[in-house]
Amino acid sequence: MVTTAGQRKHFTIPVFIPGEACPFQCIFCDQRLISGKCRAPDEIEIRELIGKYLSTLPSEATIEVGFFGGTFTGLAPEKQQKYLDTVLPFFSAGKIDSIRISTRPDYIDEAILSLLAGYPVKTIELGVQSFDPEVLILSGRGHTVEDSIQASGMILKAGFALGLQMMVGLPGDSPEKVRKTAMEIVRLGAAETRIYPVLVIKGTELEEQFLSGKYQPLTLIEAVQWTKTAMEVFEDSPVKVIRIGLHHSELFMKQDFVAGPAHRSFRELVMTEIWNDRLFPLTQEQERENIRILVHPADVNNAVGYQGKNRKMLEKYYKKVKFSGLNEIPVKTFYADHYR
To answer: Deepest in the core among 87, 110, 158, 262, taking most CB within 10 A?
Structure first.
């Protein structure tokens, strides 16, 4: 996993702990399939994994180790310490900069936060999934909206960076509820978020509901539009969207996927629609010759659109359409001029 912060790249070395410590079975979840693992790695495997990643990463990058896939803070304190102790030598040697952990809102308390504060844990991610009570109940989450709010406040008060993960298309969900969840993530002071469209996975309760007709997954078009609703909230906020959509292994896609809006370029589809909205007013202009659209270099692909969708839209109105990257153009904006 890699993101860019300014000119310095940021890498996360993922360590998956599938299903460990979670007493709940959410109707959409089978962590063994999502993580591609059947058991948690031991200390030797974790050290080897980190070493393998470090051998390929640039030394000048910001590097963190992330514990994903299970309810990390639901583990016995001794086991949490054992995992964290395994990573600590890499931090002491200056090879990694921090640790992040992923957990549930109802597995945060003062004792847990005190334990984590003794290690270089920088970010705590909570899988809140939704801030709608009905959606949480229908999804079998086992925690409440109040749990998510309380845990978020405690994490920030303890000095950690807060990440809040949300899902789109859960039972009982709607575009309005998606927007409400996104707004609450902003209000609670999250530094970052992940947005996951719901997929039906083999062996889950959601598969049973799908096969019996009780649950209908979003179409790809619906999932893109609902996710765009959330993104429109985050685009005008300090919250950084670090992932949209699951990362699928070939095994997951071919054998364990049952139904739902799966697409390898899901984020690109969403960003294409956001840029389509931005560029559409250009179709109303009187000038019909040639048009040049300047955007920040990081926005060029999204502005052009998935499979050139936005370019093709404009080509219906202009003889020639040209997209160019220019560092002076702020991100998320564009400048258009006409030329002959």
So the answer is: 87
